Structures are given as C-alpha cells and as structure tokens.
Amino acid sequence: MYWPLQQQGSTGENVRTVQYLLNASGASLTVDGVFGPLTAAATSTFQTNLGLSVDGEVGDATWGALIRQIMSGSSGDVVRAVQSQLNDRSGQVTVDGSFGPDTLRAVEMFQAPIGLAADGVVDWYTWRALVSDYLRSDDAGTCIQNVFQAWSNNDQVTALYNATPVALTTLFGHPWKASDGWVFDACGGAAGHIYCTWNRAGGTLHIGAPDPGGGLYIYVDSVTFQ
Which of 62, 205, 209, 211 is the most exposed, fewest CB within 10 Å of its CB? Predict the structure, then answer.
C-alpha cells in the first residue's frame, strides 16, 4: 500500500485529515481523530458516490480521490486538513481554513527540507509526505539518532523522513561498516543547531539539526566526516 491505510480503530492526525477531507466532500463529521462507525459510513458514502470499491476504509484509491490541490487563496476544510497536519508538527500553525501568508510559509518550510519544490502548493507529493509522517520528529537529538540508526541499517528511505537529501547524499556516500567502530560521543548546541558526534579510530562524524527557534520543523540538515 502506497498511502497509510485508515480504517475503523485508527486514531490520530491522519484520521483528522480524512475527516476534514470527507467534510469537504459533503460529510458533517466531528473532527476528533477517531475512525469510528460514523467516519466509516461517511467513507462508504464517498466511495459509492465516486464509483470506488466500497469498504469504508481509506486506502490508496480513496486517498487519491479525497485529496485536492490547494494553494494560497484556497479556503475550507481541505485547508484545515493541511493546517492541522502542519500544526501537529510545529504547534505554530493556526487551523482556520484560510490559506494565507502564514500557511504558505509553513507549507514552503515543510517542502524544502524533503526535496520538494518549495512553491507552497499542496499537490499530490506534498499530501503524501504530510500523511506519511515526513518531518515528524519533535526532538533534535532523537531525530539525529534516528538518522544515524537508519544509516547503520543502510535504510536511506527511512532516513529521508527526517533529513534533507543533501545531508543524506553525504551520509550514505560513506557506506556503513560495523568494522569502522563508530562510538557515540555527545550532542550539544551551537549557533541555532544541535550537533551529535560519533568517533572512530582516525575519524569523526558530526550530524546536525536546526534547533527550531524561528523555524517550524526538526530535521537533519548537515553531515560532516572528518
């Protein structure tokens, strides 16, 4: 499955997104992040109206039918769905259904680190990144550790959820070898960033992430081998 399945029993931000999107298509659900019988019924109605397979679950086909491209000037529940996703990550986005300058900035700042065109347009690619938990880290030190762990597992796909493509090119350009004997040293802050350091015989690895401050999201943006 390409999109995250939402069904009865699911909870969380992606369920809120589904509920907002269903409301944008004529439902009148309470947006509570709980996929119960009413959300399943609204999903089945939506599927019936569009000639989709009716199962009351939001899988690939239903996600594709629910999402709509939005941009500056858009309004309504589809905008609320995006704002809620961004606010869940940052705590700094107002969920008011109006795609104004603040929402535009929040979308652009989400797109840029993960290698999407930072144009503020919430298209198919941005939607999928939002519901697939890109830039979901809420602690810089943990984010860095997760990227290091993904590198040690040769898992660039997982690392991409928490790091910029440029940083990953540098990191995965040095294949992980257990024989290198990387040993974690420490994490510390400097000039608006948090850096974590690993040492080995004859070398050092620094991985850095911005301390949000004026930003909105946490992600690895620098990798240096010395």
Answer: 211
